[in-house]
Amino acid sequence: MNALSIVAIAFAMSTDAFAAAIAKGAALQRPSWREALRTGAIFGVIEAITPWVGWLIGSAAAKYASEWDHWIAFALLAGLGARMIWVGFRSDQSDEDQRPQSHSFWVLALTGFATSIDALAVGVGLAFVDVHIGWVAAAIGTATFVMVAVGVMLGRVLGAIAGKRAEILGGLLLIGIGTAIVFEHLSAAP
Protein backbone atom coordinates (compact mmCIF):
# COMPACT_ATOMS: atom_id res chain seq x y z
CA MET A 1 0.00 0.00 0.00
CA ASN A 2 1.46 3.35 -0.98
CA ALA A 3 1.52 6.62 0.94
CA LEU A 4 -1.34 8.10 -1.11
CA SER A 5 -3.57 5.16 -0.14
CA ILE A 6 -2.67 5.63 3.53
CA VAL A 7 -3.53 9.34 3.34
CA ALA A 8 -6.80 8.51 1.58
CA ILE A 9 -7.72 5.95 4.27
CA ALA A 10 -6.84 8.47 6.97
CA PHE A 11 -9.06 11.09 5.36
CA ALA A 12 -11.91 8.61 4.82
CA MET A 13 -11.75 7.43 8.44
CA SER A 14 -11.85 11.00 9.74
CA THR A 15 -14.93 12.12 7.80
CA ASP A 16 -17.50 10.65 10.16
CA ALA A 17 -15.66 12.24 13.10
CA PHE A 18 -15.61 15.50 11.11
CA ALA A 19 -19.38 15.28 10.68
CA ALA A 20 -19.80 14.70 14.41
CA ALA A 21 -17.45 17.61 15.16
CA ILE A 22 -19.52 19.94 13.01
CA ALA A 23 -22.56 18.99 15.08
CA LYS A 24 -20.56 19.53 18.30
CA GLY A 25 -19.42 22.96 17.10
CA ALA A 26 -22.92 23.92 16.02
CA ALA A 27 -24.21 23.05 19.51
CA LEU A 28 -21.84 25.51 21.17
CA GLN A 29 -22.53 29.22 21.55
CA ARG A 30 -19.02 30.20 20.44
CA PRO A 31 -16.60 27.31 19.95
CA SER A 32 -13.08 28.18 21.11
CA TRP A 33 -9.86 26.79 19.66
CA ARG A 34 -9.14 25.23 23.05
CA GLU A 35 -12.41 23.25 22.89
CA ALA A 36 -11.73 22.35 19.25
CA LEU A 37 -8.20 21.06 20.02
CA ARG A 38 -9.42 19.14 23.08
CA THR A 39 -12.18 17.50 21.05
CA GLY A 40 -9.74 16.74 18.23
CA ALA A 41 -7.27 15.13 20.63
CA ILE A 42 -9.90 12.88 22.19
CA PHE A 43 -11.25 11.76 18.82
CA GLY A 44 -7.75 11.41 17.30
CA VAL A 45 -6.40 9.16 20.05
CA ILE A 46 -9.43 6.88 19.88
CA GLU A 47 -9.27 6.74 16.07
CA ALA A 48 -5.55 5.85 16.24
CA ILE A 49 -6.13 2.99 18.70
CA THR A 50 -9.06 1.26 16.99
CA PRO A 51 -7.23 0.27 13.75
CA TRP A 52 -4.58 -1.45 15.92
CA VAL A 53 -7.27 -3.45 17.70
CA GLY A 54 -8.89 -4.39 14.39
CA TRP A 55 -5.52 -5.28 12.88
CA LEU A 56 -4.74 -7.59 15.81
CA ILE A 57 -8.09 -9.31 15.39
CA GLY A 58 -7.56 -9.63 11.63
CA SER A 59 -3.97 -10.83 12.01
CA ALA A 60 -5.14 -13.75 14.11
CA ALA A 61 -7.39 -14.84 11.23
CA ALA A 62 -5.10 -13.89 8.29
CA LYS A 63 -3.37 -17.26 7.94
CA TYR A 64 -6.73 -18.93 7.37
CA ALA A 65 -7.85 -16.60 4.61
CA SER A 66 -4.70 -15.70 2.64
CA GLU A 67 -6.27 -16.76 -0.66
CA TRP A 68 -9.18 -14.39 -0.17
CA ASP A 69 -7.41 -11.54 1.62
CA HIS A 70 -7.91 -8.96 -1.11
CA TRP A 71 -11.60 -9.80 -1.42
CA ILE A 72 -12.05 -9.60 2.36
CA ALA A 73 -10.37 -6.17 2.44
CA PHE A 74 -12.51 -5.05 -0.51
CA ALA A 75 -15.75 -6.30 1.08
CA LEU A 76 -15.02 -4.58 4.38
CA LEU A 77 -13.96 -1.28 2.79
CA ALA A 78 -16.77 -1.28 0.23
CA GLY A 79 -19.37 -2.18 2.86
CA LEU A 80 -18.19 0.59 5.16
CA GLY A 81 -18.06 3.01 2.25
CA ALA A 82 -21.60 2.13 1.17
CA ARG A 83 -22.81 2.60 4.75
CA MET A 84 -21.12 6.01 4.96
CA ILE A 85 -22.72 7.07 1.65
CA TRP A 86 -26.14 5.88 2.83
CA VAL A 87 -25.79 7.81 6.10
CA GLY A 88 -24.64 10.87 4.14
CA PHE A 89 -27.73 10.85 1.94
CA ARG A 90 -30.13 10.15 4.80
CA SER A 91 -31.99 13.30 5.76
CA ASP A 92 -32.89 12.51 9.35
CA GLN A 93 -33.93 15.63 11.25
CA SER A 94 -34.07 13.77 14.59
CA ASP A 95 -30.27 13.79 14.83
CA GLU A 96 -30.37 17.57 15.20
CA ASP A 97 -32.79 17.38 18.12
CA GLN A 98 -30.68 14.80 20.01
CA ARG A 99 -27.33 16.63 19.97
CA PRO A 100 -25.89 16.93 23.45
CA GLN A 101 -25.33 20.43 24.76
CA SER A 102 -22.53 19.34 27.09
CA HIS A 103 -19.04 18.58 25.89
CA SER A 104 -17.79 16.53 28.83
CA PHE A 105 -14.84 14.19 28.34
CA TRP A 106 -17.07 11.10 28.51
CA VAL A 107 -19.56 12.39 25.98
CA LEU A 108 -16.73 13.24 23.59
CA ALA A 109 -15.03 9.87 24.22
CA LEU A 110 -18.25 7.94 23.54
CA THR A 111 -18.88 9.96 20.40
CA GLY A 112 -15.28 9.40 19.33
CA PHE A 113 -15.61 5.67 19.90
CA ALA A 114 -18.88 5.52 17.98
CA THR A 115 -17.27 7.23 15.00
CA SER A 116 -14.20 4.96 15.18
CA ILE A 117 -15.97 1.62 14.67
CA ASP A 118 -15.25 1.87 10.95
CA ALA A 119 -11.53 2.35 11.72
CA LEU A 120 -11.64 -0.89 13.72
CA ALA A 121 -13.14 -2.69 10.73
CA VAL A 122 -10.56 -1.12 8.40
CA GLY A 123 -7.84 -2.42 10.73
CA VAL A 124 -9.30 -5.93 10.36
CA GLY A 125 -9.26 -5.55 6.57
CA LEU A 126 -5.71 -4.19 6.52
CA ALA A 127 -4.45 -7.25 8.39
CA PHE A 128 -5.00 -9.15 5.14
CA VAL A 129 -2.74 -6.90 3.04
CA ASP A 130 0.90 -5.95 3.33
CA VAL A 131 0.78 -2.68 5.26
CA HIS A 132 2.47 -1.31 8.38
CA ILE A 133 -0.48 -0.68 10.69
CA GLY A 134 1.50 1.80 12.80
CA TRP A 135 1.76 4.28 9.92
CA VAL A 136 -1.90 3.84 9.04
CA ALA A 137 -3.03 4.26 12.66
CA ALA A 138 -0.85 7.36 13.11
CA ALA A 139 -2.20 8.84 9.87
CA ILE A 140 -5.80 8.14 10.90
CA GLY A 141 -5.24 9.65 14.35
CA THR A 142 -3.54 12.74 12.94
CA ALA A 143 -6.13 13.29 10.22
CA THR A 144 -8.92 12.84 12.73
CA PHE A 145 -7.33 15.32 15.16
CA VAL A 146 -7.07 17.97 12.43
CA MET A 147 -10.47 17.28 10.86
CA VAL A 148 -12.28 17.29 14.22
CA ALA A 149 -10.61 20.50 15.42
CA VAL A 150 -11.52 22.22 12.15
CA GLY A 151 -15.00 20.66 12.19
CA VAL A 152 -15.77 22.06 15.63
CA MET A 153 -14.77 25.54 14.50
CA LEU A 154 -16.72 25.26 11.24
CA GLY A 155 -19.79 23.82 12.94
CA ARG A 156 -21.48 27.16 13.49
CA VAL A 157 -20.99 28.16 9.86
CA LEU A 158 -21.45 24.96 7.90
CA GLY A 159 -24.04 23.07 9.93
CA ALA A 160 -25.05 19.50 9.22
CA ILE A 161 -25.13 19.80 5.41
CA ALA A 162 -21.35 19.88 5.01
CA GLY A 163 -21.01 17.02 7.47
CA LYS A 164 -23.26 14.86 5.32
CA ARG A 165 -21.24 15.72 2.20
CA ALA A 166 -18.03 14.79 4.02
CA GLU A 167 -19.58 11.43 4.95
CA ILE A 168 -20.45 10.73 1.29
CA LEU A 169 -16.95 11.67 0.11
CA GLY A 170 -15.40 9.43 2.78
CA GLY A 171 -17.60 6.52 1.67
CA LEU A 172 -16.58 6.99 -1.96
CA LEU A 173 -12.92 7.04 -0.92
CA LEU A 174 -13.27 3.76 1.00
CA ILE A 175 -14.91 2.04 -1.97
CA GLY A 176 -12.16 3.39 -4.23
CA ILE A 177 -9.43 2.11 -1.92
CA GLY A 178 -11.06 -1.32 -1.70
CA THR A 179 -11.29 -1.44 -5.49
CA ALA A 180 -7.62 -0.44 -5.78
CA ILE A 181 -6.61 -3.28 -3.42
CA VAL A 182 -8.44 -5.83 -5.58
CA PHE A 183 -7.02 -4.30 -8.76
CA GLU A 184 -3.45 -4.40 -7.38
CA HIS A 185 -3.85 -8.02 -6.34
CA LEU A 186 -5.40 -9.15 -9.62
CA SER A 187 -2.79 -7.24 -11.63
CA ALA A 188 0.02 -9.00 -9.75
CA ALA A 189 -1.51 -12.46 -10.15
CA PRO A 190 0.38 -14.72 -12.58
Low-confidence stretches: 93-102
Tally of strands: 0
Share of β-strand residues: under 5%
So what's the overall shape?
elongated
Using brief descriptors, characterize the structure shown:
mainly alpha, 190 residues, single chain
Summarize the model shown.
With 190 residues, the protein is an all-alpha fold. It contains seven helices and no strands. It has one domain (3-188).
Topology diagram in text:
Elements: H1 3-27, H2 33-62, H3 69-89, H4 94-97, H5 105-115, H6 117-126, H7 133-188
Helix pairs in contact: 1-2, 1-7, 2-5, 2-6, 2-7, 3-6, 3-7
Question: Can you give a write-up of this model?
Answer:
- The chain is mostly helical.
- It has one domain.
- Helices cover 83% and strands 0% of the residues.
- The protein has 7 helices and no strands.
- It is elongated and about 60 Å long.
- The two termini are 19 Å apart.
